[in-house]
What we know:
The chain is mainly α.
Amino acid sequence: MAERHSHVQRYGRGAADPGADRRRAALAVLLAGTFLANLDVFIVVVAIPALQRGLHTTTGEEQLVLAGYQLVYGLGLIAGGRLGDAFGCFRVFGAGMALFTAASLACGLAPSAPVLVVSRLAQGAGTALLVPQVYLAAQTLFPDEAERRTAFAATGAVMGIGAVSGQLLGGWLLAADVAGLGWRTVFLVNVPVGGAALALLPWAAGGAPVRVYASRAPGTAVRAGLDPLGTVLAAGALGLFTVPLVIGQAHGYPLRTLLCLAGSFVPAAGFLRYERALRARGGAPLLPPELLRLSGFRRGLALVALLNCGLNAFVLILGLLLQQGLGWGPLATGAGILPSAGTFALASLLAPRLLRRIPDRVLLCLAAALASAGYAGCVLSAAYGSVPWLLAALGAAGAGLGLFVTPVLAVTLRTVPQADSGAASGVVSTVQQLGAALGVCGFGAVFFARVQAGDPPTRAFAATTAVIALTAVASGVLALFVEPTAEPPRSAPDTRTPATVKAPPSHGR
Length: 509
């Protein structure tokens, strides 16, 4: 079939794009994966007491149910992104969604705690496959920068909706005790959503299950290869770094966890050296070294890390404040998080419109300022015990964080070569998880230390939020150094490959 040209080349400037609806539908199907990934981070938290009663789980098993999912999820993201480069985002997304849905069913039917733990780890593996494909699809399906920003905005909105739905939906399912299934419903609820996404995937991808959108320009050299040694080294480095952070907190960070943290730099250094050598031999590395030489990509990753470091930690301590400090139940706690999640989603959708009028750098600084003001309001309202003012401050903080998502993804990914979009998406997703792990462990330790020192949860929340606010301030300072670089034409060939055909990414069958 003949290669497709860009919208402007084929239809003329100002003409309607007949494929736009199909591309938006394709993104909507992929966003179901983003929703489920964020939902499952939080929905299981409210089910832990029910798990204790139903399966008689131990503390270690509960940690594995909660943290094991995120660990496997984080460890597999870079590999998931590169698989999208090699095989196409829709095919890899389908494999990941099928694994995630089957694992969710296994979790819901688990007869014992060990079976639940193994099924939960499989859930994390499925999530690692499907999540990077959303960013890769945004890069591939929408060559126009304005459309791509809208896609990033939709992603940010779905992230916020998934996060709040986790606690709100989890609390409602447990309170309703649907069909007497108890805690099992928090896993089984994924099955119909995942099944619907899989059923719609062939239509959204073009009508044929075996066809996928290309993740590179037609005629460019194929960067095949899965880099198994690089995958092992990356997983080793990430595992040695994240496992002690997640598991060590409950045990007071014994010496072995500190040794693991220090030891993570050995496979990390080996990974970077091997990737450079593999590229020099003409191979396809898991993480192309030239990505890290892009200053915009590096600065964007730092902003992504700061955003998720503060965001995830804040959601954690906010839930602890509402339940432990104010005595709210799971359902009321989910409702209490609605102001921040709602403004987060709305601001994410508003950001593309603002970016038409103001530069990325300015919006990033404004978003950081609004988030900082929201955090400050949370500190004051918690200190003085004013719930209405706390909810208002939560709305301001959510709006600032939501405005941050679209421009930070745009400045991070806009200079990435098309052939490396999958790898870059995997790196961004991995940095999101690492930032979240650092925030939850670091700021969570501050919160629990204040509680153990005798502070009430409200005061511990205020003190911890004051420290979290520093991530927003640091984001605003770093945003000042973001280069307002114009995006290179997406139709240009990748100069690092022997490409000769100047054509944009293919979006059709």
